[in-house]
Amino acid sequence: MKFLPPWKKRKKRLDSFRPLPPDLVRSLDEWFKIELTYTSNALEGNTLSRAETALVVEKGLMVNGKTLREHLEAVNHAAALEGLAKLVGQPRQAISERTILDLHALILQRIDDANAGRYRSVAVRIAGSMVVLPSAQKVPQLMSELIEWLQQAAGNPLAIAAEAHYRLVSIHPFVDGNGRTARLLMNLLLMQSGYPPAILRKEDGLRYINSLEAGQLGGALDAYDSLVFEAVDRSLDIYLAALGTALEDRAPAAPAADDEQLLKIGQLARLTGETVPTLRYWTRETLLTTAGTTPGGYQLYHPHMAQVAAEIRRLQVQERRTIAEIRQILEEKRAKIES
Asked: What are phi and psi for residue 263, nearest 5 degrees?
């Protein structure tokens, strides 16, 4: 059997269930909007938590102790993602400099209107980096070359999306908002190719910066590509997990020949961002259920437990539910599914 990398296997599996249920798509879109907004802003120093970002974006609330700029960054990024959704059905060749400028304008609106949607006219540096960025005079030509490359690039869509992000942040065409705009461009390209958006996590910030800098200083981009591919892989897992019992109902009845679709607790921890002790505690409290054990005695979980873990955390943080209340809510949902 031909070897397929994990992300390609997961993409193939996800495609086998298309079209996805509309309600599921809407739910995932809303989840990714908050998660992408939180993580992308956090990478740039925004201190709003994930739950606070949701309150600002979904409820329009102000969070005590946070700056007006941080609130606007959350609202603006969510608006940019909504704008992005309107472009997903277009071909990659339709992306232009105007597309990128419009996304940047949404990111900086009401924060820096003088520079929103405009290329920089001054020299810039990346704090703490030895990278020398192009002069402002070169930016228009470099952006034109970026679009020309983007319209002609062929091959692996993940590699194209990752390289487009790398090229844009290396041009650094704006006074501010370069990283957020580059991540939006990358995710637009991914979604146009049928992939979910890549979430570059806050905890991967140093690895992200270092891998970009390695390439900008003349080194290899292997570490950077791996980071992006891992992020896409996690997002594919989230989509597959969200399908939950729908996947099981539509999948072939014969059991898998191996444990390929099951996760060890460490894998579930990496997928969810939760700690192993937290997952063990939730398992002991029967909030999470196991699907068996390995010959060595390690507990195994179905991928959809990642979605359950996300729901547990949401109920704890947003609704302030107790463990007993969460258990009851989950049991009611399971009973409804099984009935």
From this structure: -115, 140
Measured distance CA(176)–CA(178) in Å, rounded: 6
Q: What is the pLDDT of residues 126-166, one digit of tens each?
A: 888 899 999 999 999 999 999 999 999 999 999 999 999 99
Is a pLDDT exceeding 70 seen at residue 109?
Answer: yes
Would residue 194 be called left, alpha or beta, if left means φ above 0 and alpha means ψ between -120 and 50 degrees? left
Q: Which residues pair with 302 in a beta bridge?
A: none
CATH for 254-338 is: 1.10.1660.10
Backbone phi and psi for residue 304, each to the nearest 5 degrees, phi listed first: -70, -10
- Determine contact, residues 175/112, Cβ cutoff 8 Å: yes
- The CA distances from residue 296 to 2, 255, 261, 289, 291, in Å, are 28, 21, 18, 19, 15
Per-residue pLDDT tens for 35-87? 999 999 999 999 999 999 999 999 999 999 999 999 999 999 999 999 999 99
pTM score of the predicted model: 0.74
> Catalytic amino acids?
172
Q: What is the pLDDT of residue 243?
A: 73
Give the CA distances from residue 40 to residues 5, 49, 53, 59, 181, in Å, rounded to whole numbers and listed in that order. 26, 12, 11, 20, 10
Quick one: fold of 16-237? Fic-like fold (1.10.3290)
Tell me the domain boundaries of the chain.
16-237, 254-338
Q: Which residues lie across from 292 on neighbouring strands?
A: 300
